[in-house]
Amino acid sequence: MTTSAQHDVPLMSDDDRAELDRLLTALAADEWPQDIGEARKFYDAWGVPVADDIKVEERPGGHLLTPPETDGPLTGLYLHGGGYVYGSLRSHGHMVGELARAARCRMLFVDYRRAPEHPYPAALDDAVAAYGSLLADGLSAREVVLVGDSAGGGLVLATLLKLRNSGTALPAAAACISPWTDLTGSGETYRTLEHEDPMLTKPVVELVSASYRAGTPPTDPYISPLFGDLAGLPPVFMQVGSREILLSDAQRFIDGVRDAGGTGVLEVWPGMVHVWHLHHSRLAKAREAVTRLGGWLHDQAAGAR
Fold first, then answer.
1. What's the alpha-carbon Rg for the chain, to the nearest Å?
2. If the chain, 305 residues long, is cut into consecutive pieces of 10 residues, what is the mean pLDDT of each piece?
3. Are 90 and 42 in contact (CB under 8 A)?
4. Catalytic residue among 88, 91, 150, 211
5. Cβ atoms within 10 Å, residue 9
6. Can you give the residue ranges of the Alpha/beta hydrolase fold-3 domain (predicted)?
7. For this structure, is 194 an active site residue?
8. Tens digits of per-residue pLDDT, 202-249?
């Protein structure tokens, strides 16, 4: 079964534009450090505390975030962004908690190993192991959904390919925010949106790509899932901003899923930037996107059970 893209994405209002302008001005005020350790601290500092009513429990390989209301055993497995180099519970936990609330499910935040200390395939191995741990806990694959942003979105898709190719039961659905699906950087929006994207540049993308790949060809499907066989995947939902150089990464992947006979849903949010969801405390459009994504995940999992 194939599914067309949704076309009812909310447009930006004048208030939305003002909110986004204030956010981008604030983010541009600080210069990104060159040292990896300092850059990780800088990236983490963008985060805000997890909401008080979200329970956070440490568990092997990550943290389990549980909102006040959940729908049975439904559990999400979350893979964070940050170019496989940056990102942690501090930078992403608050957003993951709100997504768990919107989906009415627990979320396992995976603390996968990061490059350059741990290049490919460490992150993929950790993601596959985390999924296996949920099944070992007694969950059915149909009670699990995969979610990720940016590099974590690409890692979600690579994990799906790895699970399918190994004969492991696949999750009910997968959702990606601003996913990085092609580490070759061949998408047309790397060129056409180069001067429109205020968050990402091609040189930065190439730098973290080299750190993660450590010599593995960027066309390897477990590195760039866009180049994999996309048949037999569960439903895939993507949200991406219209100003992102990664826009074509999402568009081409969803086209590939549909061409392979699968269900792919793409939302392109006008005026939005890379993983705007992280700024839900400042942007109404981020809160709207989190609500829609969480609702889709819940609906897909409910329908699969």
1. 18
2. 55 96 92 92 95 97 97 95 98 98 98 98 98 97 97 98 98 98 97 96 94 98 98 98 98 98 97 97 97 96 76
3. no
4. 150
5. 18
6. 77-277
7. no
8. 999 999 999 999 999 999 999 999 999 999 999 999 999 999 999 999
Question: Which pair of structure tokens corresponds to residue 224?
Answer: 């760039």
- CA pair distance 123, 211, nearest whole angstrom: 13
Residue 277 phi/psi, 5° resolution?
-55, -30
DSSP state of 233: P
**Among residues 274, 277, 279, 298, which one is catalytic?**
274
Residue 98 appears among annotated catalytic residues: no
- Annotated catalytic, 244? yes
Q: Are 256 and 228 in contact (CB under 8 A)?
A: no
Query: Helical H runs in the chain?
Result: 14-28, 36-44, 89-103, 122-136, 151-165, 189-192, 202-213, 247-259, 284-304
Q: Which residues contact 39 (CB under 8 A, 6 or more apart)?
A: 32, 33, 85, 86
Q: How many CA atoms lie within 13 A of 61 on its CB side?
A: 20
What's the token pair of residue 259?
């061409």
Name the catalytic one among 19, 98, 143, 244.
244
Q: Which two tokens stand for residue 167?
A: 């004969």
The structure's pTM equals 0.97
Judged by DSSP in three states, 79 sits in strand
The enclosing H or E element of 106 equals strand 106-110
**CA–CA distances in Å: residue 46 to residues 147, 150, 175, 179:** 20, 16, 23, 19
